[in-house]
Amino acid sequence: MRNNLDVIAAYSIMLGLIILVGFLQSWSMALSILCLCLISAVMTIGANIQWGYAGLINFGIMGYTALGGLAAVLVSAPPVEEAWRAGGIDMLLCAFIIFSMIFIIRLVMKKFSKSKNRNYIIAAVIIVGLILLRLISAPAIESIEAINPATTGFLGGMGLPILFSWIVGAFFAGGLAYVIGKIALGLRADYLAIATLLISEIVIAVIKHEDWLSRGVKNVIGLKRPVPYEIDLQGKEWFINLVQKFHQGSLNLITDNLEKQQALKQLVIESSTVFVKLCFAGLFTVVVIILLIVTQKALYSPWGRMMRAIRDNEEAANAMGKNVVKQHLLIFVLGSAIVGIAGAMMVTYDGLFTPGSYRPMRYTFLIWVMVIVGGSGNNFGAILGGFAVWFLWIEAAPIALFLINFFTSGLEETNVLKVHLIDSIPYFRFLMMGVGLLLIMRYRPKGILPEKIKRI
Amino acid sequence: MDFLNAIILLLNYLFVPALSYGSQLALGAIFVSLIYGILRFAYFTAGDLMSFGTMFTILFTWYFQSLGIGLGFLPTALIAIPFGIIITIFYVLLKDKLVFSYYRTKKSPPVMLAMVSIGTMFVTQAIVRIIIGPFDRRFFDGEKFIIRANEFKEMTGLNEGLAIKSTQVITLFVTIVVVSILFWFLNKTKTGKSMRAYSDNEDLALLSGIDPKKVVMTTWVIAAILATVGGALYGLDKSFKPFTYFNNMLPIFAAAIVGGIGNPFGAFLGGYVIAFSEILLTYAYKKFFVYLLPESLEPDSLLQLLSTDYKFAVSFSILVVVLLFRPSGIFKGKVL
User: Fold this and answer.
1) Domain presence at residue B330
2) Are the beta carbons of A198 and B253 separated by less than 8 Å?
3) How many domains does chain B have?
4) Interface confidence (ipTM) of the complex
5) B106-146 residue pLDDT tens
6) CATH number for the domain including B160?
7) Cβ neighbours of residue B149 under 8 Å, at least 6 residues apart?
8) Chain A residue with minimal CA distance to B114?
């Protein structure tokens, strides 16, 4: 118990801050911060597995998040049958061609020894495959995108409940990570960082511009939620009764019946958004707790010890007979899969998929700030980092406003400097993140909650 | 005649834009490469340092414009660049003193320094956005074209026009001057040679009495100069928007690695490799072949290898391929 005092203290402070937002601003705001904190926590668990357990730098978090989001679309969006009739078979054929290309190349790699001829054969396979793909896909894509472009214009999804996508997203992201890992994991640490960053940009470019798959920058909206809708709730008898019970005290103060009805109606509307967010927060908490238990168990298992050994001294671990390459690949896939879950969760929460909003600052570098600030190698630390940094990211604007008003209180309201500073409040969050990261790295390089290694 | 038309077409839409874009990338790639070679970490602030320098260049340009100082047909920014450079030099030296020097003396691993540079990236981005805002700004003044497409058509009697923007010529000219001075400095002067020695073998260089502080400082000064010049040229040619500059970090890194990171000359060429491949692969060749082929063979598709949406993806794919097959870069890294 005493060992975990810092963890408990840190989490109590964090929860206290969120509750404070509930009292000072609004409960809806506090809960949406909580939901995104939980999603960030999932992402940081993923990044922490890679960086904290194994020392791998993955700057491609944005790519996996987007793939998770794409999974949410492909699983839950209703299928567009017309589009499938127009070009579905051709697109499936393309997928088949891609798979057979990979298969042939693998076969060639296996059958022939390293030589110039082998390279020529592989090049020929790729070129022929690409030309075929182009010839088949171009008309198919055109006809798919021509179908009702204002509302669909893509193949649609499977129309399944969106919760499935959390698993599918993990598989998507893990699959991509497997390919990238095979290619790039041999690189040195900083090369790996740059390579993953660039690959994630390619992923975003594809999602943004392949309209037949994801509607691209036209966005997919109105994805079905796993929790009730506010409008439905407001009409439900039990919900109104619940709200009435909850606010009995304040409602009884109002004597006029009509006014009472009105107040109740207002309360029901407010409570419905809170209730929906509460449901989301519950779902997300379940995911975070499951992941936390699993990763925590893994960390203190023989496997976790082996990962730490590999991280701290690759050569020695190799000499002990541990397959470093294989373990690196495994952990790269696992971590990315967890990030994929987070991506699907995020799209589930928003109910829409906007490829244009995936930017490296928000989805890669911010997550890294979370992991490093929270404490790499320590799951509790990483999650705390996710909470604290996201909280600061959202609350930076009010804090900055307060600080600016405080420091410029001597100036007039119309002072040019003051007006300019107040106009640029949104950008103070970058400043806070940067300064926070630099301070933590300088004075507490292991993060708020440093890694704890149990001695056996 | 048709052949000439085809050549002019390619020159106009392919060669000239790629050359100026490549020069802008090359300037960035050189300083990323230098920092990698001498300070030994991946400098993620690269794009934002360029936007920082450009921002001050713009502010000085506005100041000079308000005073009525100008260069006639040349853009006013050219006199503002040196002032921008001075402020950027102060900024990077301050940053080095406050942030990077601590990790250097502690001999932290390069990964740590790269993380720190992400911290400074956030800070620099915030400073730029707070001072000048996130909006698109154009600060070009003076004569826009050296040759206009119409004038060229009249002059030569060809169907295709060749337009050369003055910013393109300025970019090329300034790049040649800056880069030749830089290589002269690295190869001929004592400080430059000591920088190369330091990059090659730090311990040996320290043994032979090279002052590491001086080497590090010179590196930062060169980085500030190149960042400001490259950024200002990019801003003159296109426009200044902090977010674009941040994004430019990616092709710059690609150029630096393709050229062999730690090798400024490779990075210089790498900039052009990236720029040319981006534009070559995303250009629609239809018109080109219409000129060259007889009418019966005229193509009906656009003959575009990749849609322009994938411009960035091209350079990144090249990078991935290079990393896979020649991790030390096309021109072999670490030989400053």
Assistant:
1) no
2) yes
3) 1
4) 0.88
5) 888 888 898 899 999 999 999 999 999 888 988 888 788 88
6) 1.10.3470
7) B12, B161, B162, B163
8) A190
